[in-house]
């Protein structure tokens, strides 16, 4: 009996090993949880470097890394509405402040006069806590704040000490520099909830916009991101006014770090804190100074933010494809231009940032400042490609001109 049992067991065992390969048990397929990776682990396909230096965001191993210089953002190619997003992040500094963020439902380009987009920010910050100087109340933390930025709107789950649109987390759960943290962001119908390392700590509602681009922020410190994945949820049909703007193909001409792609006369133009500034003596210099793009453009649309100090007198000229044009009954070689300084107009903000949109479609020039049309003219003849240039002009007075957010979109020429 003992021998018989051993033989039976041996036959069963040997019989199992002789099964055809196709009949062998197969491991169970992993359940489809609906999440899709947002990063392929090789390159930044699916992402757009909006306003940073080409080296600001890079790929190393299975991580997306930002240097933090200059301040700006890397956004998704597509817009998202309702979703669950999970990611891991780590600041490398163990003692210094580490600052970054995840932008939700943002516009494709920065807001006027800032390197940030309009949207809702999920704070990615360590080693810093802000307190009101008068009351001592904590107004911003490094462990899971949610807040609106640059024109976006939201209502925090808990009232903020100063009344701002910012939700402070209910408890501290983030690890410090040199350690990985896990975020789970659930965004649905204008409501955002944030889980930090496994527990919900903050939320906002009634967000506007509630559909737009997602973005990783670069701000002063090296930060690493990995395991970024997203599960899209059914639409809740946002109204057009509840959606972010749609990308139109604008490309940045200024990397925020240096003058690569530009040429300037006499070295008067410098890069300072992510802006282009004029640096020359206050008195005794009356010659004009141009900052000229190395690339030539034909029909195109130029977006540029600019600011002149309150004490400035002079003219700031921004040109796209200068040509023989007719305006107000006159003719001659002129350019699409913006004049400030002595000119007092409601649409020009002295001492504040302005946004100009200058367009040439092959037959017509137009210029808009802060949403107000200020110039429109027709070309007398076809225009050959020209460079984009920014020029400051003044008479023995320091101009105080600053420029940022320079974007161009090439157009098909009208026939």
From TrEMBL:
<dbReference type="InterPro" id="IPR010496">
    <property type="entry name" value="AL/BT2_dom"/>
</dbReference>
<protein>
    <submittedName>
        <fullName>Beta-jelly-roll-type glycoside hydrolase</fullName>
    </submittedName>
</protein>
<keyword id="KW-0732">Signal</keyword>
<dbReference type="GO" id="GO:0016787">
    <property type="term" value="F:hydrolase activity"/>
</dbReference>
<feature type="domain" description="3-keto-alpha-glucoside-1,2-lyase/3-keto-2-hydroxy-glucal hydratase">
    <location>
        <begin position="34"/>
        <end position="231"/>
    </location>
</feature>
<feature type="domain" description="3-keto-alpha-glucoside-1,2-lyase/3-keto-2-hydroxy-glucal hydratase">
    <location>
        <begin position="250"/>
        <end position="384"/>
    </location>
</feature>
<keyword id="KW-0378">Hydrolase</keyword>
<dbReference type="Pfam" id="PF06439">
    <property type="entry name" value="3keto-disac_hyd"/>
</dbReference>
<feature type="signal peptide">
    <location>
        <begin position="1"/>
        <end position="21"/>
    </location>
</feature>
């Amino acid at each position: 009996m003992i021998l018989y049992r051993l033989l039976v067991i041996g036959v069963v065992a040997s019989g199992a090993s002789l099964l055809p390969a196709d009949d062998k048990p197969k491991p169970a397929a992993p359940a489809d949880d609906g999440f899709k990776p947002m990063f392929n682990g090789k390159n930044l396909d699916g992402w757009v470097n909006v306003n940073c230096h080409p080296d600001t965001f890079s790929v190393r191993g299975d991580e997306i890394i930002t240097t933090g210089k200059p301040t700006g953002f890397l956004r998704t190619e597509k817009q998202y509405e309702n979703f669950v997003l999970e990611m891991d992040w780590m600041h490398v500094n163990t003692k210094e402040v580490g600052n970054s963020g995840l932008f939700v439902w943002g516009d494709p380009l920065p807001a006027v006069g800032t390197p940030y987009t309009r949207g809702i920010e999920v704070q990615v910050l360590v080693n810093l806590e802000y307190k009101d100087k008068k009351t001592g109340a904590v107004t911003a933390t490094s462990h899971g704040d949610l807040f609106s930025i640059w024109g976006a709107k939201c209502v925090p789950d808990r009232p903020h000490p100063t009344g701002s649109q910012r939700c402070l987390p209910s408890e501290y759960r983030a690890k410090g520099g040199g350690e990985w943290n896990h975020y789970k962001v659930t965004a649905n119908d204008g409501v955002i909830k944030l889980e930090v390392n496994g527990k919900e700590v903050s939320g906002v509602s009634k967000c506007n916009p509630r559909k737009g681009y997602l973005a990783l922020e670069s701000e002063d410190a090296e930060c690493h991101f990995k395991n970024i994945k997203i599960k899209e949820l059914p639409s809740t049909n946002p109204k057009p006014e509840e959606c972010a703007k749609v990308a139109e193909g604008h490309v940045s001409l200024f990397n925020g770090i240096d003058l690569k792609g530009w040429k300037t006369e006499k070295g008067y133009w410098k890069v300072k804190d992510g802006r282009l500034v004029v640096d020359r003596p206050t008195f005794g210099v009356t010659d004009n100074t141009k900052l000229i793009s190395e690339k030539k453009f034909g029909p195109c649309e130029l977006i540029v933010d600019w600011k002149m100090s309150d004490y400035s007198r002079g003219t700031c000229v921004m040109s796209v494809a200068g040509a023989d044009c007719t305006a107000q009954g006159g003719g001659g070689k002129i350019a699409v231009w913006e004049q400030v300084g002595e000119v007092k107009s409601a649409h020009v903000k002295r001492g504040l940032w302005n946004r100009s949109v200058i367009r040439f479609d092959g037959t017509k020039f137009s210029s808009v400042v802060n949403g107000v049309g200020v110039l429109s003219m027709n070309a007398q003849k076809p225009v050959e490609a020209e460079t984009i240039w920014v020029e400051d002009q003044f008479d023995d007075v320091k101009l105080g001109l600053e420029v940022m957010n320079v974007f161009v979109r090439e157009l098909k020429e009208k026939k």
